């Protein structure tokens, strides 16, 4: 492999790992978390069985981030950011299934 190929590969890896331009991390307290903690948090949320489980986990995370902020002398907003409207989210939590019996 030539050095040009290695540099190209390295640049592609960096681009693949970087967040898209303008993308904001909406994880509550993300500024107090390491990249690994943020990844683990997202994975834990994805692995919750029900919306109620996800909400309970979010509340635990919120409380933990509030405690971490107090320890570090940082102030976080009282309420977490609004939940995103990702591609798989619809009213009623139906995901990508058929709409209205179509």
Write structural notes for this entry.
- This protein has 102 residues and is mainly alpha-helical.
- It has a domain of 48 residues.
- Helix content is 48%, strand content 0%.
- It has 3 helices and no strands.
- Helix 2 runs antiparallel to helix 3.
- The radius of gyration is 18 Å and the shape is extended.
- About 18% of the residues have low confidence.
- Keywords: Signal.
- This is DUF4148 domain-containing protein.
Structural key phrases:
single chain; 102 residues; mainly alpha; extended
The arrangement of helices and strands along the chain is: HHH
Question: What percentage of residues falls in helices of 4 or more residues?
Answer: 40-55%
Structural class label:
mainly alpha
Secondary structure: number of strands: 0
Q: How widely separated are the two ends? A: 53 Å
User: Number of helix segments?
Assistant: 3
List low-pLDDT spans.
12-22, 87-93
Largest sheet: none
Mean pLDDT: 75
Region (Disordered): 30-102
Biased composition (Gly residues): 83-102
Biased composition (Basic and acidic residues): 51-73
Signal peptide: 1-23
